[in-house]
Amino acid sequence: MAGAAWVCLLTPLAAVLVITLAGERLSRRGAGYLSTASTMVSFAAAIVAFVIMLGESSDARIHGTTAYTWLSAGPYSFGLSLLTDQLSVMMMLIVAGVGSLIVAYSVGYMEGEDEERRYFAYMSLFVFSMLLLVQSGNLLLLLAGWGMVGLSSYLLIGFHQERPSAIAAAKKAFVMNAFGDATMALALFLLIQHTGRLDFAGVFASSPTHGTVANLIALGLLGGAVAKSAQIPLHTWLPDAMEGPTPVSALIHAATMVTAGVYLICRCHPLFEYAPKVQDVAAGLGAVTLLMAGLIALVQVDIKRVIAYSTMSQIGYMFVGVGVGAYPAAMFHLMTHAFFKALLFLAAGIVIHALAGEQDIRRMGGLGRVMPFTRTVFWIGALALAGMPFFSGFFSKDAIVGATMTRGWYGYCLFAACVLGALLTGLYTFRLVFLVFHGERSEFAREHLHVPESGREGPFSMLWTVAVLALLSLIGGWLQWTQLWHPLTDWLDPVAAPTADPSDTQEWIATVSALVAGLAGIGLAWAAYVKRSVRIPKPVALFEKKFYWDELYDAVFYRPADLISRGLGRFFEQPVIGGSIGDVRDGFRAGAGEVARVQNGLVRAYVLALASGVAVLAVVFLTNR
Amino acid sequence: MHGPDVSWYIALAGLLFATGAVGVLVRRSPLIILLSVEIMLNGANLALIAFARHLGNEQGQVFAIAVMAVAASEVVVGLGLIVAMGRRNVELDVDKLRTLRG
Question: B6-87: which CATH number, 1.10.287.3510, 1.40.20.10, 3.40.50.10490, 3.30.930.10?
Answer without folding.
Answer: 1.10.287.3510
